Amino acid sequence: MTDDTELQTRARPGFGTAFAAAAFLLLLAGNRFEWWDYRSPWNLFLDLVIVWAAVAGLIVVGVVWIYRLYSYRKNCRRWPWPSIIAPVTVLVAAVAFVVIELPVDRDFERARTQMEDLAISMLDEGNQRLVSIEISGVSFSTVYVADNNCVYFVDGKRSSTLSRTGWLYTVRCTPNPNNFRGREELAPDWFAYRQRGS
User: Fold this and answer.
1) Cα distance between residue 184 and residue 100, in whole Å
2) Cα–Cα distance for residue pair 179/140, rounded to 1 Å
3) Spatial contact of 40 and 109, defined as CB atoms under 8 Å apart
4) pLDDT per residue as tens, the chain (198 positions)
5) Between the CA of residue 133 and those of 40, 115, 123, 124, what are the distances in Å?
6) What letter does residue 137 receive in the DSSP assignment?
7) Contact 167, 115 (CB under 8 A)
8) E-assigned strands of the chain?
9) What is the pTM assigned to this prediction?
10) Cβ contact 33:84 at 8 Å
């Protein structure tokens, strides 16, 4: 093998760029699918750092991949087959991110019936607050009935002092949208919500 051929082989985008892309995609996947559990008031900050570092890494890998592909094509007048590995890796990961159900959605579906039963019993019996409760394997730091009869299920795993998240049962209330940083309807009378922590 000549020096030129070695340089061309080394310069073509292939397994190296695919491996680098996979490393950053694993960071995004770990964050998205909750592979690690760090209980800290800085959860949101750590999430943002991980996501932005992974996105920045993917951008750098993409730029390197384009440059190396362009250089190889210019020098060799052909397309190297290993160059498709990195974009295929990113495409497969993107499809997986869309198709695979999130842990938070699985938790809601698993506990929804029992949460609804508890909410109705709290509304009927006038029980205003429960602390540190587990329903169908899902931990809640607090379940409480607000003044407007909305029942809040505060997610014990994903909430912190900076950001409180969970589910809201609204069969006997109309929630004020100004009380939330984010709110998404999941099912009739059920919302996922995000608020500032307290």
Assistant:
1) 19
2) 20
3) no
4) 444 555 455 556 678 899 999 999 999 999 999 888 766 666 777 888 999 999 999 999 999 999 988 888 888 877 788 888 999 999 999 999 999 999 999 999 999 999 999 999 999 998 899 999 999 999 999 999 999 999 999 998 888 777 789 999 999 999 988 889 889 999 999 999 999 765
5) 20, 11, 17, 19
6) T
7) yes
8) 129-135, 138-145, 151-155, 163-169, 182-187, 190-196
9) 0.80
10) no
> Which pair of structure tokens corresponds to residue 30?
């770990």
* Region for residue 64 given its phi and psi (left: phi exceeds 0; alpha: psi -120 to 50; beta: otherwise): alpha
Which two three-digit tokens encode residue 68? 């190396």
Separation between Cα atoms, residue 16 and residue 12, nearest integer Å: 9
